[in-house]
Amino acid sequence: MTIGKYLRWKDEHGQEFRPVSLTGTELLNDRTLNKSTAFSYEERQAFQLDGLLPPRVQTFDHQLNRVYDGFKSASTDIEKYLFLRALQDRNETLFYALLSRHIEEMTPIIYTPTVGKACQEFSHRYQKARGLYITEDNIDKMDEQARHFAGKDIKIIVVTDSQGILGIGDQGVGGMGIPIGKLSLYTLGAGIHPAHCLPIALDVGTDNQDLLDDPMYLGVPRRRMRGAEYKAFIAKFVCQVKRNFPKAVLQWEDFSKSNAFDNLTDYEEFLPSFNDDIQGTGSVVLAGILGAMKIKGESLADQTYVVYGAGAGGVGVADQIYAGLLKEGCSHSAAREKVFILDSQGLVFDDREGLDEYKKRYAKPRELAAGWAVAEAGKVSLSELINNHPVTVLLGTSGIGGAFKEEHIQKMLEYTKRPMVFPLSNPTANCEAVPEDIYRWSDGQAIVATGSPFNDVSYNGHSYRIGQGNNVFIFPGVGLAAIVSQASKVTLDMFTTASYALSELVSDEDLQKGCVYPRIRELKPVSLHVARQILENMRSTEPNSPLVGKDLDQELAVHIWEPVYLPYRRV
Q1: Among 72, 93, 110, 396, which is disulfide-ready with 423 (CB 3.0 to 4.6 Å)?
Q2: Which of 99, 78, 79, 101 is nearest to 88 (CA)?
Q3: How far apart are CA 213 and CA 124, in angstroms?
């Protein structure tokens, strides 16, 4: 009996095994099959490995101890990143087993913040091919390229055009580090087999002059595609994905804010797809707000929300708060009135000339600020908004380090005993305020969460655990649910359900410490709970869902891979 192509195979006696046809160096060079020094004596004979490995067979635990020693011996974070990527390229089972044992230590290495530096240095530190690089010269050959992955049964694709990489901007072809890192988290969190994952970089050029001037740069040395040319390229890419990878969920990642919204809205009905920067960010922030409501003993509708930074992530946060307010009974107009967004020009008003389409839904009428004391007519700064309106929730997605000041928090304390302050920007240098300052400014009353990892804070005899609003709590579970349900569209409701599911997993102990998120080490149970709750909601609200009558735990189990070595049998 077969249970999942890459997952678990059982014979008529119930014995799990993997049928394998590769032998010799081909087997050793296959990163999904290689066991390296853990191949048994019997397997070495059966698969023609005798003499190709050191003679002594190691246990899995011995291998894990050896590679962990190697990781610890690396002196810098980027060297640790390169060590782990090299391990991933030669033995993915060992790589994921190591990560699963050291999640809190290694997640910041394989993804934020270290992956940002890896993207910047990509061309100078390139190691081994992984994924697809699509350019204007080869996009018409995707049918041919896809044949390299024909046996992989691709289920999840993460794609970037590298224009909006984290807080560091345009990284050209180096942005490939982002899809690789995100897909590692899909496997780590949701158990999606690495062979089902495909990272793609759309190399449409770069406007980063340092890259264009670098003779070592590995990308296309041209200025970035824009306008109609770019839109035609994206349209062609999406059609190729649908034709060549019909079972895949597509995640858009680190596109510029306008392209992020355009690509999402243009193609969300065409194939199951979502943008983590918009929807994942919004979902994880709403989950944190829901946790804070438990601490405050209040409801979403009791708050006034300010999102400082109206890019893709910021408007995504506003969208998810709006969805949460609707879920809890607010009218559409009342929900929108409670959400304020600010960009580089201040509070977004509806009469602004050239206002971006995606900001219009939260733009305020000019008359709202009539009579407000402002320094410059027609503009309202963050300080001026807080001084004139009873803000209780302050969310930072601006990427401007130190943007939140003591005066902001002090004023919020006039409106609420427990202000919510989430400086969410990455990396740490871009954080709008550091938790220690926020607790000091609020005399320990603020409820704080961040986007970057911070150590616990002690203030006035109390210890506060700083919850990290990391999208990794959301997107693996959403992706897994979309795969299991064979969803034709990834909906806003799936992300709203994910928010509520995540908020359920914050312990009373953590809430007492002012923390609104679980620990990263709980990633896998969190991801599976998020996926299950989404599936349960789909089954209960969609009468024609293929999940009706199914055992959801079994449906999930079929798709979940564990990084362990199975016995191999030659075929």
Answers
A1: 396
A2: 99
A3: 14
Two structure tokens written together for 560: 């979940």
The pLDDT tens digits of the residues spanning 304-362 come to: 999 999 998 999 999 999 999 999 999 999 999 999 999 999 999 999 999 999 999 99
Structure tokens at 419: 């202000």
Average pLDDT in the 170-177 region?
A: 97
Burial class (CB in 10 A: 0-12, 13-18, 19+), 548: exposed
d(Cα 164, Cα 171) in Å, to the nearest integer? 8
The DSSP letter of residue 248 is -
Give the whole-angstrom CA distance, residue 249 versus residue 480.
9
What Å distances lie between residue 287 and 155, 277, 334, CA to CA?
Answer: 27, 15, 21
| Helix H or strand E segment including 533 | helix 523-541
568 annotated active-site: no
- Residue 435 in tokens: 């938790």
CA distance 153 to 535: 22
**pLDDT for 506-516, tens place per residue?**
999 999 999 99
- pLDDT-based confidence at 6, cuts 50/70/90? low
Residue tagged active-site, from 182, 257, 359, 513: 182
Q: Write the CA distances from 441 to 309, 409, 433, 434, 445, integer angstroms.
A: 22, 7, 11, 11, 9
Q: 16: which 2 tokens?
A: 């799990």
pTM (2 d.p.): 0.95
Q: Is a pLDDT exceeding 90 seen at residue 14?
A: no
How many angstroms separate the Cα of 243 from the Cα of each of 137, 238, 247, 301, 494?
Answer: 19, 9, 10, 44, 25
Q: Which of 81, 96, 111, 322 is catalytic?
A: 111
Residue percentage of the chain with pLDDT more than 70: 98
182 labelled catalytic: yes
Which residue in this structure is represented by tokens 């304390």?
A: 413
